[in-house]
Amino acid sequence: MTAPAPTRTRGGALEIQGLTVGYGGAPVLHGVGFALAPGEIVALLGANGAGKTTLLRTLAGLVAAASGTIALDGRDLTALRPEDRARRGLALVPDGQSVVAELTVDENLRLGALWRHRGAARERAITGVYEMFESLARRRTSVGHQLSGGERQMLALGRALVADPVLLALDEPSLGLAPLVVAQLMSTLRVAAADRGLTVLLAEQNVTSALSIADRGVVLDLGHVVADAPAAALAADETLRHAYLGF
Amino acid sequence: MDRLLFLFATGLARGAIFALFALSLVLIWRAARIVNFAQGAMALVAAYVAFAVAGFTGSYWAGLAAGILAGAAIGFGVERGLMRFAPHSSPLAGVIVAIGLVMMLQSLLGILFGAQYRPMRAPFDDSPIMVGGVPLLSPYDVFVLVVALTVMAGLGVLFTRTSLGLQLRASAFAPEVSRVLGVRVSRMVTIGWMLSAAVAALAAVLLVPTELGLNPHATDMLFVYAFAVAVVGGLDSPVGALLGGLVVGVAMTLVTGYLGATVAPIGVLVLLVAVLLLRPGGLFSLREARSA
To answer: Is B65 touching A (CB cutoff 8 A)?
Structure first.
């Protein structure tokens, strides 16, 4: 693989402390705290409604936290707007194969690279993504809504990577994709993260897939962290699996 | 036949102004999902600035430039000072704020400058050139067509070929995704308003010399026609605004020429109703139905 030479040689360290988030009424997250070491891949697990999406949206700045801190490489992000968090190297791949449907594949990638690279460096970064996802290279001029679900998710991932983030957060990338496509996506994600030393927070309902590439897993239930353990230990813990992960 | 040709040609020039103004409505709709009912009044204030500067400096061109800049400044002020605070939960909120703004601006112009018509001189002759004994376009009509088409082509290049255009489009289609990609969406919305209001100001300054003159209601009909154009063409479609503008301009001139000036507004409204019944998304919109 000839990925573009990453300009940052390591992923960022993420530290979430005492994060409480509520939409008006009852809190969705209650004092959630955990940390990601640089280069670590952590699966964020839990049933529907456990608070995974809320956590990622709060991380990206789309939802305001009632209290608590989110620090990337020791710098508090809580006061920053989403666009400024992105510019600090935090890339969120939102749920729902979030490409801009009206823009072409090329324009989506360009949009991701815009603030990070200029001129020749931008072209190199985009070429790097096309080399990583050959099916996208063949569809440069197709608009988002002409792509298959798998292609859209690849594009969303490529668009996040093109900005050379230090932390990549993905919200249920496997949702709605065929098992074969999910396997392909996960292996691409693992390779891309390893190449760049990227720190990854992967929220997933597809526990087996997520744990297969993760170093560690954090399990949320009703807005609380109920487990934080190495991936292998989580996969082996039958009680936990039955109680929170549904298999 | 000669008369038909003449009406057709003048209709194109008039239509180009409608198209330009309709395009400004499309720009704002795409940037902020607001049908800006205050667009006419805002453009009119800019036209008064153009008139004042042209009178003060003695140069039409200085006036034109001042009008366009004033339009952009007004767009900035209205978005940052007013529209930003209108709740987005209901599309009606922005509309009501806009209508309030129309009343305020028109009364203000009335208080400051009175209700009389102030003729604005065209920079070119407005009597038609004869081509082979047939009266066709006036030099001013040609000027209007050239300016309108150039500006539209320029906007086309801006939106499809530049980074700014890419960010403007992305912010309009997917504001949240754009933000997490580092696009300063709120700045893009402001730029969208400024561009839109500047284009509307240009359309108003081009229109006034062909009418009776400046007065606090000089852009009322322009807004109504351009709104019809934008709906006929599809509020999402810049190409629709261009073609719709030319169609409505020609149709209106033909109706005026053959049936009389009083019938023209009715003709436009009939067209509007027919399009809304047959193709609610507009003639050139990709979507089947309008989604607000």
So the answer is: no
In this structure, the strands spanning B130-131 and A224-230 are unpaired
- B132/A contact by beta carbon, under 8 A: no
Mean pLDDT of chain B: 87
> Per-residue pLDDT tens for A29-78?
999 999 999 999 999 999 888 899 999 999 999 999 999 999 999 999 99
Q: How many domains does chain B have?
A: 1
If phi over 0 gives left and psi between -120 and 50 gives alpha, with beta otherwise, what is residue A89? left
Enumerate domains of chain A plus CATH numbers: 14-99+165-245 (3.40.50.300)
Domain of B103 in residue numbering reads as 2-115+142-278
From chain B, pick out residues whose CB is under 8 angstroms from the CB of A99.
177
pLDDT tens-digit readout, A189-244: 999 999 889 999 999 988 989 999 999 999 999 999 999 999 989 888 888 777 77
In a domain, B51, yes or no: yes
**Is B218 part of any domain?**
yes
Q: What is the DSSP letter of A113?
A: H
For residue A157, what is the nearest residue in chain B, using CA coordinates? Answer: B181
In chain A, which residues touch B (CB < 8 A)? 60-62, 81-83, 86-87, 91-92, 94, 98-103, 107, 110-112, 114-116, 159, 163
Is B128 a member of any domain? no
| Residue range B268-286, pLDDT digits in tens | 788 888 888 887 777 666 5
Q: Binning pLDDT at 50, 70 and 90, where does residue B259 land?
A: confident
CATH number at residue B248: 1.10.3470
* The amino acid at B264: A
Q: Distance (Å) from the C-alpha of residue A193 to the closest C-alpha of chain B?
A: 19
